Amino acid sequence: MDNTDLFTAALQLEYPWKVSKVEFIADENDPKTMTLHITIAFERGAKFIFYNEDGSVWADASGKPIETTAHDTVDRTWQHLNFFQYKTYIHAKMPKVSDGEGHCPTVKAPWARKNSGFTLLFEAWVIELAKHLPVSVVAKLVGVRDKRLWRFIKHYVNAARALEDYSEVDSIGMDETSKKGHNYVTVMADLAERKVIYTTEGKDHTTVDKFVEDFKEHKGDPDNVRLVTCDMSLGFRKGVKDNFPNSNTIIDKFHVIKHANDAVDAVRKQEDKTNELLKGTKYLWLKNDANLTDEQVAWKSELMKTSKRLKTGRAYSMRVTLQDIYEQCQSREEAEPKLKKLCSWLIRSRLKPMKELCGLIRNHWNEILNYFEYRLTNAILEGMNSIIQNVKRRARGFRNNEYFETMIYLNCSKLDIDAVIASA
Q1: What is the structure's pLDDT at 179?
Q2: Angle 66-72-122 (CA atoms, 0-180°, nearest 5)?
Q3: Where are the alpha helices (DSSP H) in 329-416?
Q4: What's the confidence (pLDDT) of residue 332?
Q5: Distance between CA 294 and CA 149 in Å, rounded?
Q6: In this structure, are residues 48 and 70 in contact, taking their beta carbons and an 8 Å threshold?
């Protein structure tokens, strides 16, 4: 077996394609570096099915594909996966014909996507690397400008999303994540399949409107959505009310607890100005005892002994009561009277942040109590948010929002990229 036969087997070429030449050539940009060039040819007299520029097959009047020999060829080059340390290129004279009307249908290359300068294996490898490394780093590894890589990464992500079917989606989670500073992207997830199904810039009710348009394009039916989990954003509330008439909204319990923590911290900040005991105690009140050291638990216990005169201690006790309701109540009927009792305590506390917390709870009363009936949270989205923030950190930001959204889909949407590559 000579080297052309070896490379024909390595590239998994089938009749009528075969490797005709393999040679090392100095890189034109760096004469000291050698590059591997593989030339692919086809058997003389072989017949092909040809394709028009729009991707449609060249067919006769009855619609049957025309299979014929080539009238001419056109030179094409693709970058392939490196062979060992050598950058590798594939060259081929691609068959084409004339249809007699000024058009020249060509053959599809089995190893590459139409109009791509890379082989399918190269693109698949880069996409896999992009799940774990910033695209700028991948670009340096393969010696290609990152814009060229982004171009086909976006192509495959968009093509894979086009295959998504949301007709069975009936429970949706909504959350926002920061992009940079006070700029946000909203993420929508299928709670049953545990995957992101849409993301867009912003966090107001228009994000829900845009999501619904995309949802319908993927066969989703807003009338079939029964459950929506989200935070207390008024934008989400309006968007859900306008677009999902048959749904029950569940305010995520972790967001409710977060608002309670914020209220406790607001009380601490006010009291800290006049009470030396509270210096350096911020995280004692924001963390559960299980997450504190033994010394911190003892410190908090000592402070709580003075709770009759320590406003922060009273506020903390209210937050603990709210958390106990979530952890101990097994039904809406059990939780509602306890939540009413807590609200009475919050109102009577004469602590402004706690009274405001009470108002927030009352404004979202049914949505908060829906948790005890359906037991759904945004925990899935919180986990995805960790992945998204990791993607953002390792890339040190993105050139534009489109790139950021592309990476969210690539890492969190369980897209079938392999199906797109297989059909390229």
Answers
A1: 65
A2: 85
A3: 332-348, 352-363, 365-369, 371-374, 379-395, 401-412
A4: 95
A5: 51
A6: yes
Residues 6+ apart with CB under 8 A from 290: none
Omega into 337 within 30° of 0, i.e. cis?
A: no
Weakly modelled stretches of the chain, pLDDT under 70: 1-2, 99-100, 102, 179-182, 306-308, 395, 397
Give every CB contact of residue 122 below 8 A, 6+ residues apart in sequence: 78, 79, 80, 81, 142
How far apart are alpha carbons 313 and 309 in whole angstroms? 8
Q: Nearest Cα to 413, choosing from 236, 193, 234?
A: 193
Give CA 61 to chain center in angstroms: 45
How far the first Cα of the chain sits from its last, in Å, is 31
Q: What is the C-alpha to C-alpha distance for residues 111 and 4, in angstroms, rounded to an integer?
A: 17
422 to each of 16, 113, 409, how far by Cα in Å?
20, 10, 19
- What is the Cα–Cα distance from 396 to 391, expressed in whole angstroms? 9
| Residue 116, pLDDT score | 92
